[in-house]
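quick one: magnesium ion bound model?
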Amino acid sequence: MLEVCEVSKKFGSLVANNKISFNVEEGSIVGLIGPNGAGKTTLFNCITGMYRPTSGRVSFQGIDITNLPPYKVARLGAVRTFQIVHSLKEMSVFDNVLIGAYLREKNTEKARELTEQCIEICYLKKLRDNRAGDLAIGLQKRLELARALATNPKLLMLDECMAGLTSTEVNESVNLIKSLRDKGITFLIVEHIMEAVMPIADKVVVLNGGVKIAEDSPEAVVQDNRVIEAYLGQKYGKKCQLNSKERGK
Ligand SMILES: Nc1ncnc2c1ncn2[C@@H]1O[C@H](COP(=O)(O)OP(=O)(O)O)[C@@H](O)[C@H]1O
Ligand SMILES: [Mg+2]
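yep, here:
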């Protein structure tokens, strides 16, 4: 569904993305992980048209989107959230999501209906009339997810959407992502909370210093020495191996 082909992005002499290639299969959940500064957000920006890659190509459902502006990429159905929240703080939760709904639905009645549905699915119903700026930061990210969902996306790209959530809220988000995947939405997820991303990812792509250092199943990635050294650390690698043994894998 999404093909990233040899994408590079340079900022002066800094190579933030160095010839990165991978595919995201339709209906799958792909995790994109790596230490801070690895180039994850830059890659999201290159995919969604916020940045023009220095070289390489990105295609979505067979259409070359490399140099399309963000709104056109979103209209095709590849929609992202931001690591830094972009909610409109003075507006209500409902109105924030309604903006997303209007990207797809010009009929006011139908847009409002879609908005109500997305708010409910995203566990935000109780906060429906609250001012977005009054939500805890983690829930503002949830709101961004709800707004992205209201655009009726085919591919959702989430940039650290679980940071700042309580463990109950992380579980809600994990369940939410799984149920949306079951409804046919494809995911590319940047996430530092390994306990959240590893159990649901079909595949994990690991970046370090702008370079792709691994692309494999979660089970294989947690045992990859380069990934353990660059990012996961010995402790997490061991913990995961234990967990997968317990699960009988
Ligand atoms: N707009 C920019 N201008 C210059 N350097 C940037 C810009 N955006 C990101 N970088 C640099 O690119 C590298 C990768 O950053 P980023 O993609 O944000 O990493 P990650 O999301 O994996 O933490 C970092 O060294 C960062 O400082
Ligand atoms: Mg980032």
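The longest helix spans residues 225-246.
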